Amino acid sequence: MIHFFNGLLWGIFLAILVGPLLFALIQTTLEKGVKYGVSVGSGIWFSDLLFIVATFFGVNSIYKLIEWKNFELVVGVLGGFILLAIGFFIVFSKSPGYKPDVKKGNIRDLGSSFVLGFIINTVNPFTVLFWIGVMTTTVEEKGLNRSDTLWFAGGIFFMIVLTDVLKVAFAHKIKQWLTEKHIRAARKIAGLAIALFGLVLILRVTVF
User: Fold this and answer.
1) First-to-last CA distance in the chain?
2) Residues 1, 151 contacting (CB under 8 angstroms)
3) Are 206 and 70 in contact (CB under 8 A)?
4) Which contacts qualify for 200-207: CB closer than 8 Å, 24 or more apart?
5) Count of helix runs (H) and strand runs (E) in the chain
6) Do 31 and 183 touch, CB atoms closer than 8 A?
7) 128, 75 in Cβ contact below 8 A?
8) Distance CA 27, CA 170 (A)
9) Are 198 and 84 in contact (CB under 8 A)?
10) What is the dihedral of CA 16, 19, 20, 24, to 10 degrees?
């Protein structure tokens, strides 16, 4: 259980970081409601699960990949441009405005929300480097066996899910005090923030 607890601590560290995923979760929940916010979260969680499986079963291959001198540059530029595109799409696309939560969600829109969360999490270089770094370095340095590694990864994943749900719940709570004008403004802010993260990533790996 100590490895599960250590995973929880890493999960808390991830939860307090302000990144594009936070803005995507809040913006979607404000505009469309809890179901859609959770759908974005589900895309994030599925992406994280894939990273866990990939690092768990492919450690040796991953070591070779990260040793490639252009690895960080390629991941940063590619991920940065995708985040830029998503951010500008959110900014310039028409906002649905304020909508009350509904019991049944549109399957197509729920799927789009899932894909949004999945893409942002998957192409985010921080996510890639986090799972590769933590899962390989921590596991190797501490000599964790497969069972301990699963407990460790499970702790991180559990905290990610918990905190994402809490973020959605928070956005849903404050929605009752917001007008349609506020909702539209939140969309612009979220889009610009995601685009800014993309720009910073590109500059970080190409200039700095």
Assistant:
1) 41
2) yes
3) no
4) 200/80, 201/76, 201/77, 201/79, 201/80, 201/83, 201/125, 202/76, 202/77, 202/80, 202/81, 202/84, 204/76, 205/72, 205/73, 205/75, 205/76, 205/77, 205/80, 205/125, 206/73, 206/76, 206/77
5) 10, 0
6) yes
7) yes
8) 12
9) yes
10) 20
Token readout for 161 is 């899910």
Phi, psi of 55 (to 5 degrees): -75, -30
**Rounded Cα gap, residues 130 and 119, in angstroms:** 16
Q: Locate the domains of the chain by residue range.
A: 2-206
CA dihedral 143, 7, 29, 201 (to 10 degrees): -50
Token code pair at residue 110: 């729920």
Amino acid at position 76, single letter: G
Listed in sequence order, the DSSP H helices in 17-124 are 20-32, 34-57, 59-66, 71-92, 107-123
pTM over cut 0.85 = no
Phi-psi region at 33: left, alpha or beta (left = phi > 0; alpha = psi -120 to 50):
left
What is the pLDDT tens value at each position of the chain, 208 positions in all? 788 888 888 888 877 776 788 888 988 898 888 999 999 999 999 999 988 888 777 655 666 666 667 777 777 788 888 888 888 888 887 665 545 555 555 788 889 999 999 998 888 777 877 887 777 677 666 677 778 888 888 999 999 999 999 999 999 988 888 777 877 888 888 888 888 888 888 888 787 6
